[in-house]
Amino acid sequence: MNNRPVILIIEDDPEIQELLSHSMSKESWKLIQVKTGEEGLNILKTKKVNCILLDIMLPGIDGLRVLKKIKEQEQSTCTNIPIIMTTAKGEDTDIVAGLELGADDYVVKPYSPKVLIARIRAGLRRQEESGNNVNVTIWQQGSLKIDAARHAAFNGDQQLDLFATEFALLKHFLSNPEIVFSRNQLIEAIRGPDYPVTDRSVDVQILGLRKKLGKAGDMIETIRGVGYRFRVINN
User: Fold this and answer.
1) What is d(CA 227, CA 221) in angstroms, rounded to the nearest whole number?
2) Neighbour-count burial of 117, counting CB atoms closer than 10 A to its CB (0-12 exposed, 13-18 middle, 19+ buried)
3) d(Cα 217, Cα 215) in Å, to the nearest integer?
4) Per residue in 117-140, pLDDT tens?
5) pLDDT of residue 76
6) pLDDT band with cut points at 50, 70 and 90 for residue 108
7) Given CB 3.0 to 4.6 Å as the disulfide criterion, which of 29, 49, 85, 185 pairs with 106?
8) pLDDT tens digits for range 84-96
9) Structure-derived torsion over alpha carbons of residues 183, 188, 189, 192, reported in degrees to the nearest 10
10) How far does Cα 133 stand from its chain's mean position?
11) DSSP 8-class letter at 216
12) CA angle centred on 191, ends 156 and 181, rounded to 5°
């Protein structure tokens, strides 16, 4: 199977490496496991990977520096790769820094292998969708739907009356489910870089959007100390 997704795992703890190998053995993935950031960067120079699991605490070059170098590389092998950080519990500053540098998601140690596998699957799905559906104008998650071409938003059969910023936020969330975004990332996504908006104003916009979504507003999850995630609820 030459088309198996390749998962690059940059993790120096041998017990965690063994755990990941065992828990992912039933997945149709090819695993490449390395112990240092330098090894991981060398892999990316020669191999195409589909997702990167990156530990923050690494010997030598730490995970944040590795992440920055990956984002700075202009090689085709580093284009549009979902990057999931793993970090120690309570290291909110590392999480925020990683998200600001361009990481797509994070998991906190000790993590559930099932949760991690679900995050990887979501990242692979987003990568595939972004490559195959460049002209998508409709996004839907649960009862919520955005029709960008018509500039219309719906909750079930009911059309929502959203302000422009609320519409942009909902569109961003629906098109990027399960990804954790810092407030600055949300501002940049809907307003562009260097737009003068405070974190508090983002919280106010999120609060207003949640109210208009009713029960579906619970899908916008607050990640304490980090930002927000649109959580897909499977009924």
Assistant:
1) 9
2) middle
3) 5
4) 988 988 887 777 665 544 567 889
5) 44
6) confident
7) 85
8) 999 887 677 888 8
9) 160
10) 18
11) G
12) 65
Phi, psi of 218 (to 5 degrees): -65, -15
Who has greater pLDDT, 18 or 76? 18
Helices (H) and strands (E) in the chain, counts: 8, 12
Question: Taking a C-beta distance cutoff of 8 angstroms, is the pair 167, 135 a contact?
Answer: no
Token output for 161? 């009356």
- Distance in angstroms (rounded) separating the CA atoms of residues 205 and 88: 30
For the CA atoms of 21, 113, 126, 204, the dihedral, rounded to the nearest 10 degrees, stands at: -150
d(CA 160, CA 81): 34
Q: Ramachandran region of residue 173, left (φ > 0), alpha (ψ -120 to 50) or beta? A: alpha
β partners of residue 97: none
pLDDT at residue 22, rounded to an integer: 93
Given a contact cutoff of 8 angstroms between Cβ atoms, the answer to whether 54 and 39 are in contact is no
H or E element in which residue 211 lies: helix 199-213
- pLDDT for 88 equals 82
Tokens 């569109």 belong to residue: 171
How far is residue 174 from each of residues 14, 26, 31, 159, 230, measured CA to CA in Å?
37, 29, 30, 16, 7
- Whole-angstrom Cα distance, residue 46 to residue 34? 14
Pairing mode, strands 138-141 and 152-155 = unpaired
